[in-house]
Amino acid sequence: MASTKPGQRKLQILQALAAMLEQPKGEKITTAALAARLGVSEAALYRHFASKAQMFEGLIEFIESSVFGLINQISEREANGVEQARAIMQMLLAFAANNPGMTRVLIGDALVNEDERLQLRMNQFYDKVELACKQSLRVAVTQGHGNEADVTARASLLVSYVVGRWHRYAKSGFRQNPTEGTSLQLALMLAA
């Protein structure tokens, strides 16, 4: 790791942390274990991150930039509000399937016993996802699908569904793919 650039080292640390989070048993991750995995001292970790909380913040930033970048692409590409909402939900489920370690951050599992601001930040993430879903559903209402009175409840239901699928995926040791069987389920939740 000595010959890499500082930005690359930070990325390596975050990648190692995410890989450790992929362990199905979900044991608490220590900086000593992370340093050992990378073959460096704990002090080397702290040259790039002031705390373990900052390392988790780096993972959360990755999640936020990835997810909200994809939501923006879906919103720009898909004019139909119902299809926007469906695509956003499917993307969220696929993101978890493709990033099992990040799923433990998404559900807050990895944040237990860490700085409480991390869970607050994930709660804000859920709120923003729900807001994006509401926007898609409001577009759908203007297109004659559903009614405005149901938008908030439907958006909340959809986000709760996704979070439940994430939990089930993580608790199954990443064996139960969160995307399996979702087409019909989403169709039922999005039906007018």
TrEMBL record:
Source species, domain of life: Bacteria
The HTH tetR-type domain, residue ranges: 7-67
Key words of the record: Coiled coil, DNA-binding
The keyword Coiled coil is annotated on this UniProt entry: yes
Gene3D superfamilies on file: Tetracycline Repressor, domain 2
Alphabetical list of PROSITE patterns matching this protein: HTH_TETR_2
Transcription recorded as keyword: no
Pfam families: SlmA-like_C, TetR_N
NCBIfam families for the chain: PRK09480.1 (NF007015)
Name of the molecule in the record: Nucleoid occlusion factor SlmA
Organism from which the protein derives: Massilia agrisoli
